[in-house]
């Protein structure tokens, strides 16, 4: 009898500790549900859920603005990685070959994309003023403009690869840039869901 009382007391103590450790905002399951529901509004919902579910931000995003900021961080990371990859291809010993001009152009486009995405992330993460104010709307418009510009840079890179780049190089670069364009498109869709009152 004493053993079962001790076991019950330990179980209740553990349950109490576990309950207080969960955040008031619903914890990881609620965040995951929020991400999944929000990603339905994007062009690539599966990519959106996957990229944001693995996002290392702490705490997990629980508002449209936090989610858009997380999506922009993912986009910046992916764009940087793709830019580095393209840089290796057109650098010494790379396989840019006869298509080195278009590959270098792509590299410039990706550098621009990284800059635009970084600007958008900083703007959205900064003090945008009181929600609903003209200042907030202006900052939000800047974020949308930079996201759109980044997406244009990425698409320009893809378009340029169709001229004078061998099939293997084009395919290798295209895979990286398409991935970046998808997360950037998703980030823009999530930014567009940030209402001026958020």
UniProtKB/TrEMBL annotation:
Signal sequence bounds: 1-21
Recorded family membership: Belongs to the PMEI family.
Record-linked Gene3D superfamilies: Invertase/pectin methylesterase inhibitor family protein
Upper lineage: Eukaryota, Viridiplantae, Streptophyta, Embryophyta, Tracheophyta
Principal localisation: secreted
Location within or outside the cell: Secreted, Extracellular space
Keyword field contains Secreted: yes
Stored InterPro entries: Invertase/methylesterase_inhib (IPR035513), Pectinesterase_inhib_dom (IPR006501), PME_Inhibitor (IPR051955)
Pfam families found in the cross-reference section: PMEI
Domain Pectinesterase inhibitor stretches: 30-190
GO cellular component term of the entry, any: extracellular region
MF (Gene Ontology): enzyme inhibitor activity
Keyword Lyase: no
Keywords on record: Disulfide bond, Secreted, Signal
SUPFAM superfamilies recorded: Plant invertase/pectin methylesterase inhibitor
Protein name per UniProt: Pectinesterase inhibitor domain-containing protein
């Amino acid at each position: 009898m004493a053993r079962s009382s001790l076991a019950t007391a330990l179980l209740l103590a553990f349950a109490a500790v576990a309950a207080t450790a969960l955040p008031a905002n619903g914890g990881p399951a609620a965040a995951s549900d929020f991400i999944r529901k929000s990603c339905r509004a994007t062009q690539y919902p599966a990519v959106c859920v996957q990229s944001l579910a693995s996002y290392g931000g702490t705490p997990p995003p629980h508002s449209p603005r936090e989610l858009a900021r997380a999506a922009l961080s993912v986009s910046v990371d992916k764009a940087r990685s793709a830019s580095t990859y393209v840089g290796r291809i057109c650098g010494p010993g790379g396989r840019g070959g006869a298509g080195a001009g278009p590959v270098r152009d792509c590299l410039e486009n990706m550098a621009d994309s990284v800059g635009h995405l970084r600007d958008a992330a900083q703007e959205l993460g900064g003090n945008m003023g009181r929600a609903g104010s003209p200042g907030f709307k202006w900052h939000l418009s800047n974020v949308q403009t930079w996201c759109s510009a980044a997406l244009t840079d990425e698409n320009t890179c893809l378009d340029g690869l169709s001229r004078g780049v061998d099939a293997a190089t084009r395919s290798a670069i295209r895979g990286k840039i398409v991935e970046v364009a998808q997360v950037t498109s998703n980030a823009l869709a999530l930014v567009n869901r940030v209402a001026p009152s958020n």
